[in-house]
Amino acid sequence: MKAVSHQYLLPDNLDPAGFLDQLELPGQLRVSPVVYVTRTCYDTFDWRLRANHSCLVEEQQAGSLHTRWLRLDDATLLAKLNSGVPRFVADLPPSSLRTGLAPLVEMRVLLPVVQLQVRAMSARLVDKQGKTVLRLVIDQARVGPPGAPCTQVLPARVCLNPVRGYCKPLLLAVKQLQEVLGLAPTGPLIDTALQTIGRPPEDYSGKLNLSLQAEMPAGEAARIILQALLRTMLQNLEGVCADLDSEFLHDFRVAVRRTRSLFSQLKGVLPPQVLKVFRPGFRWLGQITGPTRDLDVYLLKFPAYRQSLETDMQAELQPLHDFLVRHQRQEQRKLAGLLRSARCRQLLQDWQSFLETPMDEATWPGPATSPIGALASRKIWKAYCKVLQVGDALAADSDAAALHALRIDCKKLRYLMEFFASIYPGKEVRRQIKELKALQDHLGDFQDLEVQANALRDFGHAMQAEQPDLPGDVFMAMGVLIDSLYKRQSIERQNFSGRFARFARPGNRKICHGMFKPSPSDKDVR
């Protein structure tokens, strides 16, 4: 039998001691002294651990502090550490906990999501040979938001923890709890705790999760999409200002870019006077967030930069790292000031007010009342055909600018597919978005390698100006790194034809033709 944990709520009229007295199990129950534990549950802002059906719990008890990584559905221990939860997984010492968490959490900061103060009574069932065959834990908890008093009382719950190799005691205990005592199984404690403090699990995702209908007026669909993008900006704004981790700014910028893309793609649907007012504001948001994001990216890539060099040369890149950190902090301070400024606050408030106002046919253009399904298909099909046309025309000697232009076309197409994905068959449209993303990532790598190489050369000049006494070995290492980036770009260029051929293969064209190609009677809306 798979070792799982069974959790049940105790009724209000049954206290822990009374519950244990009512159990009739073969063997002896040995009850341990009651312990008091403070548990703080952690996850990333976008719930990456929960998406992996797990949670991270920091437990403080009688002066000791340790961390447990638990499977969410059955509380199975995945890994543990005799210390508290750090801000970043990279701060953990080498351990199974770090190895398991690193690919899930990546660069995201670990944040407390809920706190519990628990009175825990544990017992174990011992057979005639003195062997433990079943463990029970009864938790009585109070809950509160992180850093706040735990004032809300949760129902007491009993957790049955099986012992490997002893199935029968668990089955007997489950039968008693469900059939004799009438206890109902319950979900994970963290879910109950989050519900009690009024925080929905997975209350944030950087992905668009929209539900549009093909018959919906185009203006209303645009309003729904733009509202979702604004929510993303507002949810990430404080994290950007506080510089909690680099993904807050990344998600904020993506939402800004998507908003600006929709301005362009649906300019015949949105009121012209509205675009005239808000286009400059969102262009400004894109401009002021660029420098900090660029430095964030270089810092995220720095470990790979270092690993690409020979071992005896890696230490020579430390001055580059110090330079990037110093300038990132300077740009971050500027950005936080601008995002907290009256200009930014007014822009987002005015935009929110506009989006919350129902569509008025007197001020919105006529196409705003047209069904979004037909319009979306025309826009996507036109963008798709352009990507195919431009990609097919590229030759082995096409310059980098041509590939960069194709990358921009791919990004516009992907945004359109993501905006209107809910209108089309889910499996097919997800597959095409995945194929497009693979091509876009390839083109992005090609472009980014050249941008990085040029930026590193500029960083070298700036470092020389700031610190004229830096040893020559530093710049020699940077030169080797720059050369390696150009070599990688050359390899990406050689691989382009195969990557594009995969995206444009007949099977994919047939699917896109069936989903997106409009009927001849449809007229484009510009």
Q: What this model shows, in words?
A:
- This protein is globular.
- The mean pLDDT is 93.
- Helix 6 (218-242) packs antiparallel against helix 11.
- It folds into three domains: 6-196, Hypothetical Protein Pfu-838710-001, CATH 2.40.320.10; 205-369, CHAD domain (Alpha solenoid), CATH 1.40.20.10; 371-526, CHAD domain (Alpha solenoid), CATH 1.40.20.10.
- The longest helix is centred in the C-terminal third of the chain and has 41 residues, at 426-466.
- The chain has 526 residues and is of the alpha+beta class.
- The protein has helices spanning 16-22, 48-51, 96-105, 167-180, 189-196, 218-242, 246-265, 272-307, 311-314, 318-339, 342-356, 372-393, 400-419, 426-466, 472-503, 506-516; strands at 6-9, 28-31, 35-43, 54-61, 64-71, 77-81, 111-126, 132-144, 152-153, 157-162.
How confident is the prediction overall: mean pLDDT?
93
Strand content: 5-15%
Return the structural class.
alpha+beta
Compute the gyration radius: what is it?
29 Å
Helical fraction equals: 55-70%
> Which topology of the largest domain does CATH recognise?
Hypothetical Protein Pfu-838710-001
